[in-house]
Amino acid sequence: xxxxxxxxxxxxxxxxxxxxxxxxxxxxxxxxxxxxxxxxxxxxxxxxxxxxxxxxxxxxxxxxxxxxxxxxxxxxxxxxxxxxxxxxxxxxxxxxxxxxxxxxxxxxxxxxxxxxxxxxxxxxxx
Amino acid sequence: xxxxxxxxxxxxxxxxxxxxxxxxxxxxxxxxxxxxxxxxxxxxxxxxxxxxxxxxxxxxxxxxxxxxxxxxxxxxxxxxxxxxxxxxxxxxxxxxxxxxxxxxxxxxxxxxxxxxxxxxxxxxxxxxxxxxxxxxxxxxxxxxxxxxxxxxxxxxxxxxxxxxxxxxxxxxxxxxxxxxxxxxxxxxxxxxxxxxxxxxxxxxxxxxxxxxxxxxxxxxxxxxxxxxxxxxxxxxxxxxxxxxxxxxxxxxxxxxxxxxxxxxxxxxxxxxxxxxxxxxxxxxxxxxxxxxxxxxxxxxxxxxxxxxxxxxxxxxxxxxxxxxxxxxxxxxxxxxxxxxxxxxxxxxxxxxxxxxxxxxxxxxxxxxxxxxxxxxxxxxxxxxxxxxxxxxxxxxxxxxxxxxxxxxxxxxxxxxxxxxxxxxxxxxxxxxxxxxxxxxxxxxxxxxxxxxxxxxxxxxxxxxxxxxxxxxxxxxxxxxxxxxxxxxxxxxxxxxxxxxxxxxxxxxxxxxxxxxxxxxxxxxxxxxxxxxxxxxxxxxxxxxxxxxxxxxxxxxxxxxxxxxxxxxxxxxxxxxxxxxxxxxxxxxxxxxxxxxxxxxxxxxxxxxxxxxxxxxxxxxxxxxxxxxxxxxxxxxxxxxxxxxxxxxxxxxxxxxxxxxxxxxxxxxxxxxxxxxxxxxxxxxxxxxxxxxxxxxxxxxxxxxxxxxxxxxxxxxxxxxxxxxxxxxxxxxxxxxxxxxxxxxxxxxxxxxxxxxxxxxxxxxxxxxxxxxxxxxxxxxxxxxxxxxxxxxxxxxxxxxxxxxxxxxxxxxxxxxxxxxxx
Lengths: 126, 822
Fold this sequence. Notes:
heterodimer; A: 126 residues; mainly alpha; B: 822 residues; alpha+beta; 6-stranded antiparallel sheet; 23 helices; 30 strands; 32% helix
């Protein structure tokens, strides 16, 4: 569920905002649906990496891979086009993981704070 | 503790995003670059991409139809001039935005703003050349001509309309790599692009070298090594006397003062390698004239040319434009075709100054005169503003000061070697001109008279314009401002301390050489001497020789010519230089002194037909032999002192060596002055042959396929910024510096010079029909298949049909973009 939420929110955010838009999107997903930081990080990584992989694969295939190999040369990546995909997915995934995990923790802290505010002080022992 | 953990993770997220958005140590911002939504992936064009069919743009007055053919050449059909040039600017920006930005930044000395400190010295050099001042003068001139001012303004508005519409995803890839964004365009930036061309075509001078040689070896040595003319030359306009001789001109104002004494530096430019010609209907199969234009420039990707059709109520023209400039520069209308080669006339002179210590003053008629100071503020990315002081004198700017560190220490560009220190530069590039007017009129020409009228406006630098018409006329006109030199003037650095040397006389346009419908039924130019000695006015000596001879030979025997005859001649790889020199070299070699290992090399040369084919081995051997021989002839005398840095750039022409060899081969130049004995042509031929064979074996192994001409010299077309992955290597085109298909490396760099646009036009009575190709494509985007789709045809010597598309074909036969006012 969290992975899917990250996927959808990040896709929407990237279509509207500059590249950094993926971070608040993953953060929001983590804050709303994250149960633990570790799980949120994994879901954030997988969600953003999927978005970036799907989108870059589409560009690669629809263009006949016209730029991918050249970019491997420019970025000095051994391994050609595959390395460009790997770096792309890793970078997007890393941002997604960090954002979702920090969103999850931030959500917990905020919910804790709200709970504390809303709970009446325990009555003194009789 | 939990809050701390949360804050740390949030900080790490923000840090990673910030790092991915920033240039760190000059590296691209990887987050933005790799993001599939806005990064480089977005520059990878769909294989079956189509252009949008409708655009609403603020600034148009009506509707523009842009029909794209299968090579994505835009055929722009507009209802008025404003919309036509607006659309041209918009379309060029869409296809070549980064290129026009760079082309305008080079002469302005503004590369470091986007490239950083590595470009600072190049920027400083270009600022010192004073190119911006020339562009500003041109802008003022154009401002007085409302028609061309509007053309420039409309074009600029079109470029800016595109820039305003640009999204992060659409940004050209080079900007993404540099983390930069295009700044607004302006008419001045267009004129800086023009200054780029003026500088490229007229920007170097041999005055420093000749002065150096004169001071070491005497004036007779200069006249011997660098004669103003050579026997057997084929001038553009033969038998000039009686046509437009300048002998009737009043004498120039005053004798000039040569600099006595001290030694000055500097050096040479290539001869250029462009060709153009036209043949009259009497020599063609159809009875209609044929015209060929084959301009040669540095080969880059994207191509320096952008193909376009421009159609409006008062014009219908097709050809190539220079990105950043409005109009068609080389092309044809329905009735007229024209082409250009560089005249190579000497329009750059140096004046030695006596500068006052500690003060920006120079001696002028015995008194100190203050130089005008221009403080140049060079913005260097990641560094800040670096100031440089430019001194302007009565003659022009001071490019180099003797107190400055040597180029090696400072990293100045190699051009710096050509510049004598503490000298003022007088250069045609500082004189403004309204060349836009010339092309505005050419694009509307329908007769030879129209062409002649258009060329009257051309100023900088002088070019050889060939033209032909559907009325059957052919002509050649040297257009542009030519200096009226005083006797002996133009070869040496002059004394700049006297007012009598200031200012310059120019020929009036009517005195420029030209010919119209000559009896021989053809006209041609190949950067050779424009005139013969009877012209009576010195235009320079640094002219091409063998390509003109070859052209003359071929055209003189041409009958029933077809467009394909023209195409074949453009692709001609026959080396007249080799044909003139190699037999003499071979006959001087002593077989008894040859090593057995060298005999097969010799046999291969003996069997060579002088064709510089890409797969042939003989051109590699001859070229290597020639370079070593040439070096051994001249290096001992000319390559001394500062001039040793110039290497082959300071050596006389190929033709001069052949002339000396033909005269017996015992000229003193053949003697190596560092040895006690006297060497001859035969001695140098023998020693350089063995050394050539050794060096080729060392480089490529035993004689075989790796020695093949194109492979050995690694033919390629480099990207504008030298990015290897965006360049095209492994080309197999052949040719050479002294062949009509003049593809050759620029000095020792990876950059090649060659045919930048090959065009053939048949001027048939029902309308001009054209063919052409350039070594690139219409798009400047390395992620587009139209980036280099022309290279294959260019390499093979094939031409594409150049079609006029008419309005009723729009939206029916071809993909059409409708541009409308918002």
